[in-house]
Amino acid sequence: MRDDLKDLKAFAAVARAGGFRDGARAAGVSASALSEAVRRLEGELGVRLLHRTTRSVAPTEAGARLLERLGPIFAELEAALDVVNGFRDRPAGTLRLNVPVSAARLVLPALIPGFLRAYPEIRLEVTAEDRFVDLLAAGCDAGIRYDERLAQDMIAVPIGPRVQRFAAAAAPAYLERRGRPGHPRDLLAHDCLRGRFASGALLSPWAFERNGESVRIDPGGPLLVQIGAATELMVDAALGGVGVIYLFEDWLRPHLDSGALEPILQSWWPSFPGPFLYYPGRTLVPAPLRAFIDFIKRAP
């Protein structure tokens, strides 16, 4: 039974990582050990679980079904073992978080160093991606998302700044060349740098608010990037004078403070509620996650 469990964990590690090398790094074992475990499991089950090529590894239909069922099982097993944590002086174990790239850049850096110093026996694993995932199926304890993307059966705890803003900006050289907009609708005549989510949906429309007036525009431009994975490319393009960028104010703040980017329509920048740490309410809260929740509640 113990060997079967090890082989199942090996398969899950490879399938989630998309390869034996990355799976081995995540599991803390050798790639050859994972490969042998997966071959052994496939032999016992009599079915191929992974498609293997020289460049990638992906679950077969049978493998995908198995992986989907294993997520909740592993989560429940870890929760059962975590009961022992209640008898320790300090919580220990692994905390797995799934967060958007913006949270990995703007929220976690202010929290993680202090948390890991306070709980040295906890190991933190962070996956940054902008698609919404099933936490249990992905093998994660909790995630960070904004309110409009949270499922009703999730428990949500505020994390990070409670109010954020979107900011519009461009390089001074671009504005000297193209002029400075006086109203959000003026952006329709400018080159605007656009973003889209992993789902393919555009970060649109661009929203602006002032004195009770709301304006939404759908500008065009020469560059479209995937939010998260290529956001820095969009920032670099704005710094290079390609066009106007519309992004989290905190993301652009260093460039605004240095003068590399000039704020546009600042009195129109819209604010929105900050993100939440969320986790399933139907499962026992693991000790590392409980420690993290308590830590962020105490954070200024």
TrEMBL record:
CDD domains: PBP2_CrgA_like_5. The keyword Transcription regulation applies. PROSITE patterns: HTH_LYSR (PS50931). Pfam families: HTH_1 (PF00126), LysR_substrate (PF03466). InterPro entries: LysR-type_TF_proteobact-type, LysR_HTH_N, LysR_subst-bd, WH-like_DNA-bd_sf, WH_DNA-bd_sf. Transmembrane segments: none annotated. Keywords: DNA-binding, Transcription, Transcription regulation. GO terms for molecular function: DNA binding; DNA-binding transcription factor activity. SUPFAM superfamilies: Periplasmic binding protein-like II (SSF53850), Winged helix' DNA-binding domain (SSF46785). Belongs to the LysR transcriptional regulatory family. This is HTH-type transcriptional regulator PgrR. The lineage of its organism: unclassified sequences, metagenomes, ecological metagenomes. The gene is pgrR_1.
